[in-house]
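Translate structure to sequence.
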């Protein structure tokens, strides 16, 4: 299995002192996002994409995908992602696992995060893409392609 910039528990990265408490769909942040007008929603997405991809030429492509998404599905999907904690479950994985990871905001922090979150999967191979944000395939396309090919052989 090859995963790209993925963690078994995204909430632990985004919520300080995360204690595995489920986030309800009906929360203030979700309500705000669902009630935004289109201009505000697109503005929020335009800000987010700055941190998700360093390759500015790809921003319009990413924004188009984000802005096209059904708003309720987008918001609830984000909550679903935050509520997913597979840090214990990954110990059951018996196939080779490769993770291709962005190093934004800094490699030291990213390495520490990935090592902690994948500690129950000691056979995992993690490769770090320098100068890349979440959309590794856009920020470092040659590195990405080479790592996919190398790890499929």
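Result:
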């Amino acid at each position: 299995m090859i995963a790209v910039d993925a963690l078994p528990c995204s909430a632990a990265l985004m919520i300080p002192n995360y204690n595995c408490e489920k986030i309800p769909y009906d929360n203030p942040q979700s309500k705000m996002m669902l009630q935004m007008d289109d201009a505000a929603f697109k503005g929020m997405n335009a800000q987010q994409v700055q941190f998700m991809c360093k390759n500015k030429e790809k921003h319009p492509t990413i924004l188009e995908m984000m802005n096209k998404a059904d708003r309720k599905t987008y918001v609830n999907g984000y909550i679903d992602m935050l509520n997913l904690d597979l840090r214990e479950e990954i110990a059951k994985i018996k196939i080779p696992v490769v993770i291709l990871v962005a190093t934004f905001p800094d490699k030291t922090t990213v390495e520490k995060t990935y090592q902690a979150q994948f500690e129950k999967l000691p056979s995992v191979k993690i490769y770090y893409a320098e100068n890349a944000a979440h959309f590794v395939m856009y920020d470092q396309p040659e590195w990405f392609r080479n790592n996919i090919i190398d790890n499929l052989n």
